[in-house]
Records
---
Amino acid sequence: MFTLSDLVQPDNIDTAYQILSNKRNNTILGGCAFLKMGAKRIGTAIDLTNLNLSYIKETDGFIEIGGMTSLRELETHTLLKECFAGVLPKSVRNIIGVQFRNSVTVGASVYAKYGFSDLITALLALDTQVELYKGGRMPLVDFLNSPKGKDILVRLWIKMDNCKAVYLNLRNSASDYSVLNVAVCRLDEQWTIVVGARPRRAAIASKASAVLSQGKQSASEIEDVAQKVSEELSFGTNMRGTANYRKALCKVLVKRAITEVQACKSH
Amino acid sequence: MKSVGQSIRKVDGLMIATGKPVYTEDLAMSHALVIKIMRSPHAFAKITSIDISRAEKVEGVECILTYKDVPKERFTLAGQSYPEPSPYDRLILDEIVRYVGDEVAIIAAVDEKTALQAMKKIKVVYEVLEPVLDFEQALGHTTVVHPEEDLSCNFDIGLQREKNIASSFKEEVGDVEEEFKRCSVVVEDIYYPQAQAHAMMETYRAFTYLDHTGRLVVVTSTQVPFHIRRQLARALQLPASKVRVVKPRIGGGFGGKQTGSLEVFAGIVTLKTGKPALVIYDRKESFSCTTSRHAMRLKVRVGADQEGVIRAIDIQVLSDTGAYGEHAATVLSCVSYYTLPLYNKTRAVRFTGDAVYTNKMPGGAFRGYGATQGTFALESAVNKLAEQLKMDPTEVRLKNISQVGETFLTGQGVLLGSSSLERCIRKGKELIGWNDKFPCREIGKNKVRAVGMAITMQGSGIANIGTASVELRLNDDGNFTLLTGATDMGTGCDTILTQMAAEILEIPMDTIVLIAGDTDTSPYDPGSYASSTTYVAGTAVVKAATELKQKILEQGAKFLGVPSQNVEVNGSGVRTFRGEKISLAKIAELTVLGTGKLQLVSYATHGSEVSPPPYIAGFAEVEVDKETGKVELIDYVAVVDCGTVINPNLARIQAEGGIVQGIGMALYEEVNYNELGKMASNSFMQYKIPCRKDVGKVRIAFEESFEPTGPFGAKSIGEVVANTPPPAIAHAVYNAVGVRVNHLPITPEKVFVGMQKL
Amino acid sequence: MQITLTINNKVHTWNVEKDEFLADTLRAHGLLSVKKACESSCCGLCTVWVEYKPVLACTILSVRVHGKAVTTIEGVPTEAEEFARVLTAEGAEQCGFCSPGFIMNVLAMKKELINPSEEEIIHYLTGNLCRCTGYMGQLRAVKTYLGVAQV
C-alpha cells in the first residue's frame, strides 16, 4: 500500500502539471489498482477526476479518448466497436472483470507502459498518438520508446482510417495476464504486426511487417513472416512462460491474426 | 420423506447472501487492538537480536511480543482429536524461524497504520542459515529444519527430526515384487501433484477478549472450535475451562481453517494487555503464512494379468510438509487409505511414504487430504495400464473395483457396506458420450477433442476416533433447540442436521433452532473435517431425535393417563388409538410447569467403527489446441455415490464446487516459491483459482446407494468431490495429443513442450 | 478531508483520510456487507455501485466519490432479496462471503444488458470470484432470475 502526504483534485490541467513537477515524488493517480499493490511514498497525489477527461468522441477524423476514460468505457463504446474491426474492445475485454475495468483508466494503462498490457498492443497496431501535457502530441511508439519523465497523458488520438485489425492472445486462466498477445492491422497495402507481453511491453515487428506488406500474403508467405517476427523480436521468461514457448507462440498467433485480418470483410 | 431428500434452502442463506454482519470481523468490538505480525524474510534463520525499544515508543502501540515473551512449551496447531498424531513442534514465537513468513514479532496497536509504523522500527538481526527448499533433497540434508531437542510427539508417527522426517508410514500385504513378476503388464510412473492454496474468500481472522469472569473468549473463523480451545489452552498455559471458542458464520475453509494459524496471537495479546484484540490475515498472509495442500512425489507401479485384473500395486510417496508437521502423518497415511481399497482383486499391495520437513510454508489439511494426490497418481497409472492392456479404461475399472460385501487386502476385514460405483461409471460414460468420443477426434483448425476418466473414494468420518454429540430440547413454546458442535463453513450442515431432526420428529424445519459452534454451549464435535458431519453428527442427530420423540410419546401418554403402548406420536402431538390427543405445544407447556416438572431433553454421542467410502466417477472432455498446447475444458461429468442424498441442491453445489477446485489443481493453480523460498504466488493476481470462464460445463448426477450405518443411508460428500479432475483431465490430454503431464498443473506450455518431444 | 456523498439514497458528510479506500470507509460507517478479500483488485467481493455502475470499493479512493451516489446492498434491499431468494433456492450462496458483491454485480448487469446470452452473462460476472460453488449454481440462479432458459 502506498503512503501520501497530501491529495489534491485540481480543476485545471495547468495546476495539475505544476503540482506534478513541484516535487520528485508527486504522482498522478490513475485507477490506483497497481499503485495500491506497491509501497510508493507519494508526496502529493494528484487526482484528475475534475478535469473532464473521461470521454470518447470523434474529432476531425480521429477518435479522441480522454486519459481518465475507463477501460470498460473503451470496451462498450459503439464507436470503438465499429472501428478497426472492433479491435480495442476485444483487447481489453478479458482484463479481470467489469468492475475492475470500470475502475481503471486508459491513461494510466498507457502511461505506465506495462509489459503485460493488452491495450498497448492493440493501440500500437493502429495509428495512435498520445497527447502529453508537456511533451505534446506524438506517435505512441515514440512515447513508448522515450525515457521515463514526468508528464500527464491527457488524451489519445487514433486516426479513423479504414484499417482492419485483429487482437489475439493466449492466457492460461481466462482472467490472467496474457502469456503473449498479438495485434495485426492492415490498412490498404500496409500491414503492422505488434507483439506484447513478451514479457516486455509491446513492440512493432517493423521488418517483418514490411515483408508482409510487400508480398501477396499467401499462406507460405504468412508462415514465413510469422517466423520472421519471432526472430525479429526478443522474448523472455517469467512465471507464466519461458522465452522459447513465447517465441513458438508468437509464430502461431501472428499467423492466425494475419489470416483473420484477411478474412475481415468491410462492413 | 418431508425434509430429508428435499432441496431445502440453507437456514442462513438469505441473511448471508444479503450481507448481514455475521462474520468474525463484523462481530469484533470496534476499539479492539489491531494486531500485525512481523515476519521472517529468510527461509531459515536464527534471531540473534531483536530490539523493539523504538517501536514500543510509537504512540498508540499497546504491546509488542517477541520469542522472549512467550511460553517455552511446544505444541501443535493441528485440528485433530487428542492425542494428536502431530509433532509438538511449534512455539508461539520461536528464536528460530523456519520459512519466509514465519512469525517474528506480534504488534498490537490502536489501528493498523500504527502497528505497521511500529513494525518498521523493530530491529532484527538474523543469522541466516542455509534452507532446504527442495523436498526431494530434504531427507538427510545437512540442514535440519527442527534442530531443537524439545520436539515431541504423543505417539510414534515415525518422526526422525535429524533426518527431516516428520512422519513415515508403511502398509504392506503380500509380496509385491513376486506378484509383479507374475503380471502380464506392469506400468510405472512418477507423479508430482503440486501444493495448492485453499484461497477461501474470507481470509483468516480471530477476535479475542476477556469476559466478565476473566475467561478468554476467542471468536474465530475456524472449522474446529474444540481443537482450537485445546490448542490455546496448551499454548497459552491456561486450563481449557478458561477458554471459550466461538465460531460465527465463516467464509469458507476447505481444510485451511483446520489448523489454528492465528488464534494464538490474538489470545496472547488479550492475555497480556487485558484488552480485546483482532487479528486479520490479508490475502498475502493467507496465501503465504498459513498452510497449503502437501505437494508430493508419488511413484506408482501397477501390475495386471492378461485379463486386466490388477494384481499388484506399489506406491512410494514423498510428501512435503514444510516447516511444521501438523498434518504430515495423517495426510500421508490417507494417501494409502483412500487409494488401495479401490481395487481389491490385488494379491499384494505396498505403501511406503515419508513426510519431510522443508523450509517452506507448512502443508496442512486440504479437501481430499492425501486422497487427492493419491488419486491423481493411481488413476493416472491405471489409465496407462488400460492403454497397455488395450482395454477401455472404464472396463478396467469395472473389472477391478471393490463390490459391496467385499473387503480389501489392507482393510483388516472390514466389509464394504454400500457402493453404486459401478452405476456411477456407467452413467458417467453415458452422460459424457464416452463411446463416441473415446479416445479422441480431430475437429479441424488444429484442434482435437478427447475424453478421460478417473474414479475416487474418500471416507466418512474417522473410524473409532471421531465422535459427535448432539443435544435436543423441547422448549416451553413447543419449539425445539438442537445443540451441536458441528461447524458449518457455508456447506450447509446447520441445515441438513435440522432436516434430519425435523424428519424424525415429523415437524416443520422452522420449529427447530440449531445452535452450534460455541465450546461453552455446544456438545463436543471434532469439527468440519474428514467428511464427518453428515455421517457422524447426522447419526447423533438421528439418535437424539429418536430418543426425544420417544420421551414426548411417554410424557404425552402420561398426560393422557394411558400406558405408552396405547399411543402414537407425530409432529402434532400424541394421540391414543381411540382418538384422545394432546398437542405438542400443550405437552411442551405442561412439562415446564408443576404438572410435568420435566423439560424434555435428549442427548446422543455417536462414533462409528467404520468409515464408509463415498465414490465418484469423473469424466472430462477437453479440446486441445495442437499449435499452442492450450487445453480448453469442454465438459465435466461427475457421478456421485454419497449414499442417500440428504439435500440434493446442497449436495450438487458441493460436487460442483469441489470439481472446480479439482479443475483448478489440474489446469490453473500452482503454489510457487522463488529460489530463496519466498512465495511468488501470494495474490489472486499470481495464483489463479478458476474464474467463471475457466470451467466449461460441469454436470453432476447422483447414483444413490444406501449405507446401512449412515443416517437415512447417507455417507459423505465434502472431500471426495475434489479428487477426480486432475487424473481425468490429464488422461483426456494424453488421449488428445499423446502427452502425459505428470507435474501438475497442466499448463499450455507443458503440453506444447510434450508435443515437441514426441 | 470531508466528502459529501449520497449513500444508499441518503446524503452524508463524512471525514475520510486522503489515502482511504471506499471499502474501508463504508465498513467504518456500518455498511458491513462490503467485504475485502484480496489486495490485488482481482476478486470482486467489494463490488458496490458508484453512480449506479459496479466498481471495486477497495480500489476507489473515498475522496473520489465526493458528490457522487454510492450504493451498497443495504441500499437495494427489495431487489437484493428478490435475487437472493433465487440464489438460495439453488443453494448457491454457500459460505455467502462473495454473495453481496456478486448480487450487486448481477443487479447492475440486469440494468445494463438486455436479454443477455449465457456467454454475455458469464462475461459480465467473470470479475466475481467464488471458491465454494464452482459457479454453476450461480449461473442457474441468474438465468432463472432473468427469465433465460436453462440449457
Note: The mean pLDDT of chain C is 97.
---
Amino acid sequence: MTHSAKPIHVRFVPGTVVVIVSILLLTFSAAAQSKTAHKSRSARAVKPDPVRAVNAEEMQALLKRDGKHPLLVNYWATWCDPCRDEFPDLVKIDRDYRAKGLDFIAISLDDLVDIKTAVPKFLLAMNAKMPVYLLNVADPEPAINMVDKDWSGAMPATFLYDNKGKVVYKHFGRVNPGELRAAIEKLVDSKQ
Amino acid sequence: MKKLAAVSLMIAMLAVALLVNARPLVADTPAPPIIGSTIADFTLPDASGTAHTLASLHGKNGTVLIFIATQCPVSNGYNERMEKLAQDFKARGINVVGINANSTESAADVKDHAAKNNLTFPILKDNGNKVADMLGATRTPEAYFLDASSKLLYHGRIDNSRDITQVNSSELRDALEATLAGKPVPKATANAFGCSIKRGAE
C-alpha cells in the first residue's frame, strides 16, 4: 500500500526524460493550479447542484453506459472517515479528467434527513462539482448486490466502468489515487 | 560509472513497473468461508491481554462473532442491539463475542469503549487481522453465527438498518431462533453498508 503515485505515470520512460517531463509537468500543473484556485474563489458563491435521492432502480439506471464515456462511481457517507479523507483526491480526479470524457458520480449512503444539510455542506466545503445522489432504500442489500457480488457494503467503495459499462477497476476502502488515476488514464487514452 | 547508474535506474524502474502491474485490481481480502463450512479454532487476546480460544468461548448452542469498531458510527449504532442480543441468548446457550480488527484502534480503546457503552460480552483484539482474514471480514459490524461444532450457519448483517426505527428484517436473530428451534436458517447471508475494517500489520 505504500506505492507512490509517480512511478505509475512514468514507469516505462528512461531516466533523463523522466526528469525533464516531471519538471515540465510540475511547472504546468503549478500554473494550472493557481488558475483553478483563482477560478474556484469566484465560483464559491455558486452552490453545487442539489443532491437527489434515488432508489435502487434509479441508481442502476445511473450506472448504464451508452458507449461514449467511462464512469467513475464512489459510494460514500459523511459519517465515514476514510470516505471524507479520500474525497479531496476524488474532487481533483474529477477536475482533471471530466474534460477528457470521464463521467463521475458520487452516491451518498447518508440518511435522507441529511440530504439538505450535512451532505451539501460537506460537498460545498470540498468544492465538489460532480453530480451527487443519495441512495434512499429501506433495505440496502439489493442495491449492494446489484453493484457488485464481491462487495459486502464496506465503505468507501469505488468502481470504474469503461464506456460499455464493464467494471475495469474497483476498490473497497480508501483509494490509492495513483492507482485509480493509472486505471482512468488507460480508459481516456484508449478513446483517442 | 554514469552508464552503470543509468542502467540501475532503468532496472529499478522496470521492477517498480512490474510490481505495479502485478498488483490485483482489488485489494485481496480473502473470500469468506462458505455457509456450512467449519471454522478452524483460533486464539486471540481480549482487551486486557488474556488469550481465549474460540472453543473456550463457545456457548453450548453456538457462538456469534461480530466484528465491531470503537469509532465507526454504524457499528456504534448497534451497541445496544448487540448487548441485548448477548443478554437475550446467553441463557439459551449462544454466546456473543466481539472482535476488533481495526489497526487504528488499540486494546485500551476497545476496553474504554466497551465500558462507556456497557458492552458486557467479551471483545477480542485481532491484531494483524488474522481472524478477519480467515473469515473474510471486511466491515463493521459484520456477524458470523457458528453452531457448537463451529459450523458457519449465518454470515452478514445484524439487521437491515443502523437506524433502529427502520428495522424490518433481523436476519441474525432469525438465524439464532431458527437454529434453536431445530430449523434451517431462513436467510444465511445478507449485506448492509458499514465501515471498512482498517487492516494493518501487527
Note: Strands of chain A lie at 52-54, 71-76, 103-108, 132-135, 154-155, 157-161, 167-172.
